Amino acid sequence: MTHACTYDNTESEPSCVTLFFKLRGQKRRSSSVLPLTETTAGAPHLNGCGKKKNRKMAVGRQRVLINYNHLNSNQPTYQLLSINSMADSPTTHSSYDGRRQLKPSHLQLQLIERGAQELADLMKLKQQGWDDEHLDKHFEQQRNQAQNPGHELKISWYRKMTEIMNEIDGKTNCIPFSGDLHFLDLGCSPGGFSAYVLTKNYRARGLGISLEEEKGGHRYLLQSKRHELISANLTYFQLGPTPILDTDKLQPLPNSFGSEIFDLCILDAHQLRWQKDGENWDGWRLAISQIILALMGIKRGGTLIMKLSRPDHLYSARILWMLDQVSTELQTCKPLTMHRKRGSFYAVALGVGLGKAGHDLPSFVHAFQKLWVELTFGGEDGRGRWMTEEDLDFLILEEELALSFADRLIQLGRPVWSIQAQALAKLVDNSKRKKASI
User: Fold this and answer.
1) Least C-beta-crowded within 10 Å: which of 18, 105, 245, 431?
2) Could you state one GO biological process linked to this protein (predicted)?
3) What's the pLDDT tens digit per position in 57-107?
């Protein structure tokens, strides 16, 4: 999620709350009842993103603990900015001219010419949203709410993250019920994704890496002996092709991290707008850092879940191309829980390393590592630089992408564009009704 957090001082709350949510097909397990306040968080059973699955099954209620003690303190407000923040309003665009006119990118035009009518419809709706000051106010109110959340909203975010993972799993069946499962969760706090995995699979063990709370990271709310949290800025691990010794910025990779040891890697970290040691381009560094860690750590045949924004954006399209090449199966999922009105979606790659270009994974990792060094220590003054479109040419050139991958990209993008268009259409219609009633 991309939002800001403030933590209010609430003395009347219990020490922790037990969240219950149902898992598809899981048999009922008996367990002792702790003397804690219980709140039901019913995650829907999903066969696809947002569709209920109608079949009989045995369902158990499993406990996930949230540590409430950590919520009872005052903390400063931090505003988080994803590199994909342009996806967080109906005015998502490639570029606008001085008249606030949406200008499709070259890739978008080619996709529309190849039959991506859903994308064309979405772009029309985005233009309407851009021209509608009432919708601008709607999204501004959402941003303000995220910057000043109350106690209930913080818990709601945690619950929604479990529901999002439930939707993703419902469509892709990416989380096994049984068997050993070692997973990596990048940007894990507050812990909803990991909570879902740990609850569904009782043999799962997780490693989460998330920014320190004092630097603006989310508060970690998950309690589990099967999950280890490492509080760190993952962009300052040693992620180059060779160790860089002449700097005090970097730290070695955690001892718990290793090459090809994770069955599942989740990439959902977001960049802070306010950060004590941050640079303006750190969002791109974070994106590349996550990719390096995931591709280094994932087992051959493992599963990778990655949040992206807008399949028609050149960066996202290239990442989708890479995942499609190195995996045996690639799906996209746009959860209805939180992502309907935004361009964000999740790519789920199964059988990573076993695809037709699985043998190219080491060379991809090496190229990403070289790019990380340039983004971290390049630029005129050696403080790093912005990423350019040409930086990912080592994956595939834009011209080649449009020629050889357009049809597959449209196939992956259609459900994402359609869901967002439906949500924006409702917002536009509601806004028109409100203006007509004034």
Assistant:
1) 245
2) methylation
3) 333 333 344 343 333 333 333 222 233 333 333 333 344 444 456 789 999
Annotate 185-196 with b (16+ C-beta within 10 A) or e (fewer).
bbbbbbbbbbbb
Q: Mean pLDDT lowest for which of 37-46, 158-167, 329-338?
A: 37-46
Does residue 142 surpass a pLDDT of 50? yes
Phi and psi torsions of 181, nearest 5°? -145, 110
Q: What angle in degrees, to the nearest 10, is found between the helix axes of 314-326 and 361-377? A: 150
- Check whether 330 has a pLDDT greater than 90: yes
What structural domains and CATH numbers belong to the chain? 102-140+397-437 (no CATH), 172-391 (3.40.50.12760)
pTM of the model: 0.79
212, two tokens? 């320190």
How high is the mean pLDDT of the chain?
78
What pLDDT score does 151 carry?
Answer: 62
Are the CB atoms for 406 and 316 separated by under 8 Å? no
Contact criterion met (CB below 8 Å) for 119 and 417: yes
Q: Cβ distance 352 to 298 under 8 Å?
A: yes
Rounded CA gap, 147 and 160, in Å? 17
Distance (Å, whole) CA 66 – CA 152: 13
